[in-house]
Here is the input.
Amino acid sequence: MAGHILTVAQQKGGSGKTTLAAHLAVALSQNGGQPVAVLDVDPQGSLGTWFEAREESLGEHATGLEFKTASGWGARREARALARSHAFVVIDTPPKTDTDAKPAIDAADHVIVPIQPTPVDLWATEQTIQLAAREGTPAFLVLNRVPPRASLTQEMADAINASGYEALEARLGNRTGFAASMGKGRTVMEAAPSGKAAAEMAALVSELIRRIGS
Ligand SMILES: Nc1ncnc2c1ncn2[C@@H]1O[C@H](COP(=O)(O)OP(=O)(O)OP(=O)(O)O)[C@@H](O)[C@H]1O
Ligand SMILES: [Mg+2]
Here is the structure.
């Protein structure tokens, strides 16, 4: 049985794709201890840099993940190959989904779209959602870097609702732990397992697993 391919995509740069991809991969592997692979198709290579830091800090054989890179249509082939031996394949993509991320969106069982709660971010998101729809791939929005007590966040949640896009109820706050842990090749679940950010990730992964039915 093939594993589940989750592609993290969002046209808007800096929306949190790489951070979410790394956190999803580690959280999915911690959750039930199933094999998880990460695939970086972004030529910026940020996820690869994170993975190298992870190998340095945990040791090459203790990262808990398999890591690969691919480009162009090779991404689809690589993702499907990884899915034969992993329960989940998490793909990090570059911004500009139309050209570079298309094969990864095409290969995905689900597209995960991080979005910061601002109107400009929602405009950019429409292109990503439409691309996923054209490929016939269901997409979930994840509100990311949500500030505490902002009325704009509720307005954005309402706008997403009205647009008919599917969003996860779980949200990730704007928390320095996400950035700080990534710098050391880790995640918030490892750097601060009893913190708020780790609790947000746990809620996100359990909702995601429930909704993708895997
Ligand atoms: N939930 C969060 N709380 C605080 N900071 C965050 C959060 N998510 C991401 N960031 C920070 O936002 C910045 C952009 O994140 P990231 O690199 O993951 O985005 P990206 O979408 O992959 O960017 P690009 O489009 O360049 O690939 C980084 O500095 C990251 O540490
Ligand atoms: Mg990135």
Remarks:
- Residues 17-18, 42, 46, 92 surround magnesium ion (ligand 2) (CB under 6 Å).
- The mean pLDDT is 94.
- The two ends are 12 Å apart (CA to CA).
